[in-house]
Design goal:
The protein contains 3 helices and 7 strands; from the N terminus they run H-E-E-E-E-H-E-H-E-E. It is an alpha/beta fold. The protein has a 5-stranded mixed β-sheet. Helix 2 packs parallel to helix 3.
Length: about 140
């Protein structure tokens, strides 16, 4: 009688755990990629400043066009719609807002957006500007 301590088995490749890992990686990369897509803004001639700071990506960007129209995420909105959008953001006190306006836009239109933000209790407001060439 011949005794075998170790039986030789044919190797098997389990495909289901590999599919699980691949799906997790796919979902992870899709979510990361979506987070990296910046808010598509409008082409504006931003004013320049010698004292600019790089701000983190804002939660909300409001574009004020030269003719005074207000755009958020590619949609034209009125002052009332803008206030409603700010208030619907959950906690307006924690909303990070950046206002980008063309340098030829009347200053009053810019101030109207700030007033709308203040009416909705937003206090974290940034202003988009281009740094001066060779500046900080």
């Amino acid at each position: 009688m011949k005794m075998r301590y170790f039986e030789t088995r044919k190797a098997r490749i389990e495909i289901i755990p590999m599919i699980d890992v691949m799906l997790f990686l796919l979902v992870f990369f899709i979510i990361v990629t979506l987070q990296m897509i910046p808010d598509a803004g409008v082409s504006l001639q931003l004013p320049v400043s010698s004292q600019t700071d790089q701000l983190p990506h804002p939660k909300l960007t409001v574009n004020v066009l030269p003719d005074g129209t207000i755009q958020v995420k590619g949609q034209t909105v009125s002052d009332a719609q803008l206030i409603a959008m700010f208030e619907a953001d959950g906690d307006p006190a924690k909303t990070e807002l950046t206002i980008a306006t063309d340098k030829s836009t009347p200053f009053q239109k810019f101030m109207n957006v700030i007033d709308d933000a203040r009416k909705a209790s937003i206090s974290d407001i940034g202003i988009a500007a281009q740094p001066v060439a060779g500046g900080s």
